[in-house]
């Protein structure tokens, strides 16, 4: 093909019968966001600092002699701030995912894409990479001139410096990410000796490459074309959702003018058509065209416009956080906060409270012991030397506590029965470990007829009777 698909126009018929040619794909143009100061920029900096202090710092925090937050996939154990979760606790992961989804729905319905603009990892790392780019190459015009300038020693030096810092930060990000799954102290010791395993090396490089590619190269394209949140957010928006909007009623007609010009007499609005709001946008949209799915709600355009309004001595707020209904004067903007408690949002909040309440209640009542029972399938029932009927079981006791415990095993539900445990009768289990133990239950002849008889195993910690598990089983008689 002599022509790329993206260059082939498609003719569409509009509602008025006119024909218009559109392109299926638009050619990507590099965006050079301009640095902006202001209230919302300071908020973005604060969220970048908070999220990255947590991400990079948390793996190094120790609790009970081990990493406070560790997802140990090799041993199938998750350590989360003193709690120990085993594979049987998968229900808590389900609850976390449900709570996150419902929380996102509630947040989006009320606050729009504030998450995207301030705390989303893609936004945060893009912001960090842009800081590095500005520090090395300069602000918007300096970067444009550098990219359009012919190759030179200075250009090579600046480009190599920028990408070197990006790569180092990306690799450290990948290392930290792996540190949540492999104890980071051990990981650091192995890395310092260049002795990382193949899988650890792969994931450090893979996550580092993803960070470098997404934040350094793809940037807004991730938000536009890859992130599903941008696509389905419209289903959660309503006319009372907080959005960033340009006040066309106040700003139009647009036009440049001198500061001392009586622009109202000239028939102009407050917008001086400086396009600074477009220059600072990290996704390259013009907010004056209305709400667009590409907008991530970062408010850089608000800071930029407010700065221009201050210079022109016009009132701030030509571009602002508002709602569609407030913009259409269906209620005053001071009532926006009241609309948060509308039924749709409160329904999400109620569901979220129920999920969190059940989860927290379950965690509070959770006992740090898990027991799995399996029966001897070869001989369901046999007769002991003294004539008693006997069933054999295998119990796996998992200690989901940060300290070791000794346990005793008893049974109830069977009259005239006795329980025989392998060894000394007490089972010692190390912290966050498991122990298999054989148990025989014997019943006096004539006390257990043919078929199954319900019984329970009771496993209790000798040093803390509150740690106990009661598991249902059955005794086969004859």
UniProtKB/TrEMBL annotation:
Keyword line: 4Fe-4S, Electron transport, Iron, Iron-sulfur, Membrane, Metal-binding, Transmembrane, Transmembrane helix, Transport
The keyword Transport belongs to this UniProt entry's keyword annotation: yes
Transmembrane intervals: 39-58, 78-107, 164-181, 201-218, 345-365
InterPro entries the UniProt entry points to: 4Fe4S_Fe-S-bd (IPR017896), 4Fe4S_Fe_S_CS (IPR017900), Cyt_c_oxidase_cbb3_FixG (IPR014116), Electron_Trans/Redox (IPR051684), FixG_C (IPR032879), Helical_ferredxn (IPR009051), Ig-like_fold (IPR013783)
Domain 4Fe-4S ferredoxin-type: 262-290
UniProt name for this protein: Cytochrome c oxidase accessory protein CcoG
The organism of origin for this protein: Iodobacter arcticus
């Amino acid at each position: 093909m002599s022509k790329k698909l993206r260059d082939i126009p498609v003719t569409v018929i509009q509602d008025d019968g006119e024909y218009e040619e559109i392109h299926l794909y638009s050619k990507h143009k590099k965006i050079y966001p301009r640095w902006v100061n202001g209230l919302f920029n300071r908020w973005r900096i604060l969220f970048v600092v908070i999220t990255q202090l947590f991400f990079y710092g948390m793996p190094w925090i120790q609790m009970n002699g081990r990493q406070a937050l560790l997802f140990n996939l090799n041993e199938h154990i998750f350590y989360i701030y003193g709690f120990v979760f085993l594979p049987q606790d998968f229900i808590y992961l389900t609850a976390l995912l449900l709570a996150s989804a419902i929380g996102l729905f509630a947040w989006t319905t009320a606050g729009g894409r504030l998450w995207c603009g301030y705390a989303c990892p893609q936004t945060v790392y893009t912001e960090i990479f842009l800081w590095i780019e500005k520090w090395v190459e300069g602000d918007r015009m300096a970067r444009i001139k550098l990219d359009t300038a012919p190759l030179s020693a200075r250009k090579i030096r600046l480009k190599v410096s920028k990408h070197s810092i990006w790569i180092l930060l990306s690799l450290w990000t990948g290392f930290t990410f792996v540190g949540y799954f492999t104890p980071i102290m051990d990981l650091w010791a192995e890395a310092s000796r260049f002795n990382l395993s193949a899988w650890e090396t792969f994931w450090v490089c893979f996550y580092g490459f993803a960070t470098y590619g997404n934040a350094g190269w793809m940037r807004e394209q991730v938000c536009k074309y890859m992130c599903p949140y941008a696509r389905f957010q419209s289903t959660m928006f309503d006319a009372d959702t907080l959005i960033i909007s340009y006040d066309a009623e106040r700003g139009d007609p647009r036009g440049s003018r001198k500061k001392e010009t009586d622009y109202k007499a000239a028939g102009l609005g407050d917008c001086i058509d400086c396009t600074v709001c477009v220059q600072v946008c990290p996704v390259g949209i013009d907010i004056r065209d209305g709400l667009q799915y590409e907008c991530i709600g970062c408010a850089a355009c608000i800071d930029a416009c407010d700065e221009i309004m201050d210079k022109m001595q016009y009132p701030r707020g030509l571009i602002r956080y508002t709602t569609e209904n407030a913009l259409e004067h269906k209620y005053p903007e001071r009532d926006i906060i009241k609309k948060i408690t509308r039924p749709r949002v409160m329904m999400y909040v109620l569901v979220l409270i129920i999920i969190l309440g059940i989860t927290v209640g379950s965690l509070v009542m959770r006992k740090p012991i898990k027991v799995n029972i399996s029966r001897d399938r070869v001989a369901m029932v046999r007769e002991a030397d003294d004539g008693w009927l006997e069933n054999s079981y295998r119990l796996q006791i998992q200690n989901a506590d940060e300290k070791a415990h000794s346990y005793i095993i008893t049974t109830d539900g069977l009259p005239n029965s006795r329980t025989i445990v392998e060894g000394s009768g007490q089972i010692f289990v190390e912290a966050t470990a498991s122990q298999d133990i054989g148990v025989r239950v014997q019943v006096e002849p004539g006390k257990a007829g043919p078929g199954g008889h319900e019984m329970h195993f009771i496993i209790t910690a000798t040093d803390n009777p509150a740690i106990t598990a009661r598991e249902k089983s059955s005794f086969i008689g004859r």
